[in-house]
Design goal:
The protein is 45% helix and 19% strand. With 303 residues, the chain is of the alpha/beta class. About 3% of the residues have low confidence.
């Protein structure tokens, strides 16, 4: 059986030290690694889709206007690929700040510690394994994450936010008239409407955000590295996209969404599951016809 090789994409102006360190961990004689080396950020971005790397290493000195610009751009281009920053010892603080721009970890050039590099790569591979597992947690109709998928990914994003001082925002949505569409127009029309809602949610968020179908008519968007005010911005964007969608549909099959929003910071002691429940619970009660004055109904979008 052919051993699977680790695909590594390295972007560095002078890659000799890093290449030697990687070769020491994955000797060429054992064929344990497939290493691709590029020397510019533009080439890196163009190569990602071809190489399909499992890990990206980026030289922090390959900056655009400011070193973190390159980190942010690479992370936005390949949000699911672990990104490791390489920096001079004098730029250690910049390397640490890059963790808030999407980098998973960093190593310092000059005397690369093989043990640290091995730990960093091992953590990246563990994250990849988790990603492959969560890919199985997809809703077959919409291809969005299921509730279990969101809990798995969300808990991981929360752990990362604890480490880098980041924040999360959450928009939960209830497809308010799904059952009405099913009863009046049939199951086919309801399924098409669910597809439209899934596309709508994916279309109004960033590539680094996570979209899930929590239940029959319940959905969620998890915004990563986003401050609390972003939740209302995301809700407003969703409302605008819904208005555009409903202009393409007949009045009798217009989609109605009810939304609820919340935010989480690194100082928040709630688990991700508790955070999700706190934001979704008003919509769950609304869907059960249990709206009371003590339970906020959220924002109902009707077009």
């Amino acid at each position: 059986m052919t051993q699977k090789r680790l695909r590594v994409l390295l972007a560095e102006a002078d890659s000799s030290e890093t290449t030697e360190a990687l070769r020491a961990l994955y000797p060429e004689t054992e064929k344990g690694m497939e290493l691709t080396v590029v020397s510019t950020v533009a080439t890196l971005l163009a190569t990602i889709g071809v190489v399909k790397p499992e890990i990206i290493l980026l030289d922090l000195s390959m900056s655009l206007r400011e070193p973190r610009d390159a980190v942010h751009l690479v992370h936005r281009t390949a949000p699911g690929v672990p990104l490791i920053v390489i920096a001079e010892s004098a730029r250690k603080q910049q390397a640490e700040r890059s963790l808030k721009q999407g980098a998973m970890d960093y190593v310092l050039r000059g005397s690369i510690d093989l043990q640290r590099l091995a730990r960093v790569l091992s953590a990246a591979l563990e994250r990849n394994s988790l990603q492959r597992v969560t890919e199985l947690l997809r809703d077959p109709l919409t291809e969005l994450y299921t509730r279990d998928g969101l809990l798995t990914v969300g808990s991981r994003r929360q752990d990362e936010a604890h480490g880098n001082g980041g924040a999360l925002v959450l928009v939960c949505a209830l497809f308010d008239n799904l059952q009405t569409l099913r009863e009046e127009l049939g199951p086919g029309a309801a399924d098409r409407a669910l597809h439209d809602v899934a596309s709508l949610l994916k279309g109004c968020c960033r590539r680094s955000d996570v979209v899930a179908r929590l239940g029959e008519a319940h959905f969620a968007i998890l915004g990563v590295d986003a401050a609390a005010p972003s939740a209302q911005v995301m809700r407003n964007r969703l409302e605008q996209h819904l208005a555009v969608l409903n202009r393409t549909r007949l009045p009798q099959d217009a989609v109605e969404l009810r939304t609820s929003i919340g935010s989480w910071s690194a100082q928040d002691e709630r688990s991700f599951a508790d955070f999700l429940d706190s934001v979704q619970s008003p919509l769950v009660l609304a869907s059960m016809g249990m709206k009371t004055k003590s339970v906020p109904e959220g924002n109902r979008i009707r077009v």
